[in-house]
Write a structure and sequence with these properties.
heterodimer, A: about 120 residues, alpha/beta, Rossmann fold, 5 strands, B: mainly alpha, Serine Threonine Protein Phosphatase 5, Tetratricopeptide repeat, four-stranded antiparallel sheet, 27 helices, about 65% helix, Response regulator (chain A), Bact_response_regulator (chain A), Sig_transdc_resp-reg_receiver (chain A)
Chain lengths: ~120, ~525
């Protein structure tokens, strides 16, 4: 079973994403802040990381930096609001994230993108 | 040895000090021996003090003549001793002495006086005040009485207003401090309880919400029976206001984050759970913040049935209620035009204008809003907003109406109308620009001059030259020269060549410099 790490400080969104991905048969790890995200990247065996950008303690860019150093083979999807973080998102793409999904988003669309990335 | 000497010296010093203290306390109670004798006569029996009659050889005499049963010739009070002495003298012509016995030991008169004085000082005996002593020596009599305050206990306390006031302030301070601590404790306890409940309700809400959104279709959700729905969200919980509040907040937050069919699902769920009724109820609240919350909920969840209730708040005296009501009406209604805005009596703030503009900009392509209605408003800020709307959403078709209006509007409105013509690049009626150039209002002249550079004519150039010859202030001079340059380069060059004003030359050099012309 593929394991996906979800790093999102909004409990409601993270729970919905988790619910949707579990429905597709993925194993999920849910964390609420940047520090916990980095710990999970170091300790878990992951197939995909879904991360928000604006989060407590460490932002999404720092997490992407860390993931690229320690687990460069794991694909990353950024889930964030493009309007307020356009510059950061461009930086994330430069760091080699696999996809970017702006909020508001459709969880079904996210599930399709996850499936596509994990297949490839 | 030295230590012993030191101890002895300290002890001696202590004794001297102690003695001084004692001596210092020895205020004479009796002025002389006569007053002491009088005191003994009047006092009667004194504890530890006895008397007896003795002859010159100090042998005591029994009073058999008076038939008194005296033990060893001793009497307890001085008056009796005196009477015995007189009686012996009268009967036997035998003069006897009175001997003073303190605890049965013979003592001198002076020692007895000292002993009685100590008793009085220590309060061991109370002096007997004779009935006829009034007016004799009240001060000495008073000094023999123990002091006790006239007002005692609580009455004495309250009679001293300063102490009472200070005590009252201290008491109030403590009451206030305790009340504050109590209030903070209660507040903190309630907040903690609310936070715990929030976490609990979040857990209770997230799971069923996810299940409904991902497991059901819109049709299935709408056809759910009340019992089935209560399986997800218990009816008992839905009666709790805080649970309902958390549920509403979560649905609204999801509505903002989600897109596609999920939005429709959330709106359908909102109505199935009767949360729309709670939103409508909020619109009737007397608290403005609750009304605003209700308006936001109505707006977010597209509760079109609430339009009538929302309209009631359009002219609310509260700024936030009014702003949110207008924004909600604009978003919700498919048929509403801007007539409700035209009739507003309160001035529009910049923030409100920006807010309404954002909505109108989005709506005007799909709906006929009748922006021209705003030009007829009695409220100047609404009219100004109307002119700005024409400019921002590019309603060129309304420029003719604006031009017609321009003859009868205030100078502030003329400025907005001219800005609109200039922005859209459409030549205005020459009277609007040229007439404004002749105004006394510097701001209007400045705007008209700037517009003349883009949409002016030959008359405008002539008026600008006339204005420049009147030597206006520097900033206006700069605007006029810049406009003239844009409007007619030949006239501008001719004016510069003919001008001898060093300021005009400086501005001209600035404008002709390719690096500085936009600075």
């Amino acid at each position: 079973m593929k394991k996906i790490l979800i790093i999102e400080d909004d409990l409601l969104i993270s729970s919905l994403v988790q619910f949707r991905l579990k429905k597709d048969g993925y194993d999920t790890v849910l964390v609420k802040d940047g520090n916990a995200g980095i710990t999970a990247i170091d300790t878990e065996t992951l197939d995909l990381i879904i991360t928000d950008v604006m989060m407590p303690f460490k932002n999404g860019i720092e997490i992407i930096h860390h993931a690229r150093k320690t687990k460069p083979e794991v694909p990353i999807i950024v889930l964030s609001s493009l309007g307020e973080e356009e510059k950061i998102v461009l930086e994330a793409f430069n760091l080699g994230v696999s996809d970017f999904i702006p909020k508001p988003f459709n969880p079904n669309e996210l599930a399709i993108r996850v499936k596509r990335i994990l297949k490839s | 040895m030295k230590v012993k000497n030191a101890v002895a010296l300290v002890s001696l010093l202590f004794l001297i000090i102690k003695t001084d203290i004692v001596l210092g306390q020895d205020e004479p109670v009796f002025a002389d021996s006569v007053s002491f004798a009088n005191f003994l006569k009047s006092q009667g029996k004194i504890p530890g003090l006895q008397f007896r009659l003795v002859d010159s050889s100090k042998a005591y005499i029994l009073d058999s003549a008076l038939n008194r049963s005296l033990q060893s010739g001793i009497v307890r009070d001085f008056a009796t001793a005196l009477r015995l002495k007189d009686s012996v003298l009268r009967s036997y012509e035998y003069d006897l002495e009175i001997q003073y016995l303190i605890y049965s030991d013979p003592n001198t008169f002076k020692a007895t006086q000292e002993y009685v004085s100590n008793l009085l000082r220590n309060g061991d005996i109370e002096p007997t005040v004779a009935g006829d002593s009034n007016g004799k020596d009240l001060i000495s009599l008073a000094s023999r009485n123990k002091y006790s305050p006239f007002l005692k206990g609580t009455y004495a306390y309250f009679s001293e207003i300063k102490i009472f006031a200070v005590s009252l302030v201290i008491l109030l301070f403590f009451i206030f401090a305790f009340s504050m601590i109590l209030f903070m404790l209660i507040f903190k306890a309630r907040r903690n309880q609310k936070e715990k409940l929030l976490v609990l309700y979040d857990e209770q809400i997230v799971a069923p919400l996810s299940e409904i959104l991902f497991e059901k279709t819109l049709e299935e959700l709408e056809s759910l029976s009340d019992e089935e729905l209560n399986g997800y969200f218990p009816a008992k919980q839905l009666k709790k206001p805080f649970y309902v509040q958390v549920l509403v907040e979560r649905i609204l937050a999801l509505n903002k984050t989600m897109k596609g069919d999920f939005k429709l699902m959330l709106k359908a769920l909102y109505k199935r759970l009767d949360l729309d009724k709670s939103s409508l109820k909020k619109l009737k609240s007397s608290k403005w913040d609750t009304v605003v919350t209700g308006l936001v909920e109505v707006n977010e969840m597209d509760l079109t049935e609430a339009i009538y209730a929302v309209k009631q708040h359009i002219n609310s005296p509260n700024f936030y209620v009014r702003s949110q009501a207008v924004a909600t009406i604009l978003t919700l209604s498919d048929s509403v035009d801007l007539s409700f805005l035209r009739d507003q009596t309160f001035p529009l703030s910049r923030w409100q204008q920006m807010n309404y503009l954002r909505i109108i900009k989005f709506l005007h392509t799909t709906r006929e809003l009748h922006i021209e209605m705003l030009f007829d408003s009695r409220n100047q800020s609404i009219r100004l907003f109307g002119y700005k709307l024409v400019r921002v959403i590019g309603r060129v078709d309304l420029l003719e109406t604006l031009e017609e209006k321009s003859g009868s509007v205030t100078e502030e409105e003329k400025i907005e109308i001219i800005k609109t013509f200039e922005y859209l690049g459409v030549p205005a009626h020459t009277e609007l620009i040229n007439g404004s150039l002749k105004s006394e209002n510097i701001a209007l002249v400045s705007v008209a001059a700037k517009a003349a550079g883009a949409i002016g004519d030959a008359t405008s150039a002539k008026i600008i030259c006339e204005l420049l010859n009147k030597a206006p202030e520097f900033r206006l001079k700069m605007v006029l020269l810049n406009s003239l340059q844009n409007l007619d380069a030949a006239v501008y060059n001719q004016f510069i060549n003919e001008s001898e004003n060093p300021e005009v030359m400086r501005i001209s050099m600035h404008l002709s410099d390719s690096l500085l012309q936009d600075v």
